[in-house]
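**User:** Here is a favour to ask of a fellow structure person. Please take any protein you like and set down a full record of it. No explanation is needed for now; the record alone will do.

**Assistant:**
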Amino acid sequence: MKYSPRSDGRKFIIPSFFFIVALCVLAFINEVRFDSLLSFGRCALSNVPRNSSSLEAPLLSSSDEDEIRILIGILTLPDQYQRRHFLRMIYGTQDVPAGVKIDVKFVFCNLTKEDQKVLVALEIMRYDDIIILNCNENMNKGKTYTYFSSLPDLFNETDAPNPPYHYVMKADDDTYIRQESLVASLRPLPREDLYYGYVIPCPSMDPFVHYMSGMGYLVSWDIAVWLKDSEIPKKHLEGPEDKVFGDWIREGRRGKNRFNAKWSMYNFPEPPTRCTHELWPDTIAVHLLKNQEKWIRTLNYFNVTSNLKPSKLYHIP
């Protein structure tokens, strides 16, 4: 019988063709399965909460989580012009993350002098960052109540977001607040029934025992609305304002979500007390900056001028 190489070649080519086809079909099936598994995995992960916390936080979309609106009310006096200009520099040069809105307002009671009526009016025309409450100037006789309870009516524009602010803060004018750190600490926290700050007494770490220090405490917007409508604070206005505020929260059974920001909030390290802490990177607020030397030491520590752009117009060694 005569041998034919062409016949053997055909025998080899035909099985090889079907083998290649089979491989292609198998690869296609596996790709479909992989895509299905990948889609399933994405769906499962999208249902896992980003943060686990014992606090009761409502579910938010990613865009809602990124968007935070905060009002910082710095309680001060009408005649403190220099302090306000200084604080405008401090807060006006801080960067905040995208999607975050922080409004810093200076808060005091009715004007009583002719020069105040001119100078404060000029400030408002230039900066638009002042709230004048309808009250007589005081520290511990209801000014804090007037501030919080006035907010719902002051910010009730129909075309504004609802709520206008997620959080509202009361701060002293000798407190340095690092806004980016404040925002980072608030991101995982609830936006309802929240009471946040530096818990008093100083050695305590339990935010449910007493109250938050007046250096700077923050509540969610719904608590400001409650203060406006409740009769509880109206019966008890006088006394150390931070302690009285804590009394309102306790008697009204508010603030079921609490956050103790100690030791990211603390008093300036000198003179040392049980409320002080050394300056350190994990800082949200430093309190009792009573003179320029303490302010400069604090600002130098946090290197606040690092973003100064070089220019031929100045030389700062």
User: Anything to note?
Assistant: The chain is about 40% helix and 15% strand. The CA atoms of residues 30 and 36 lie 10 Å apart. The first helix runs from residue 5 to 46. The mean pLDDT is 86.
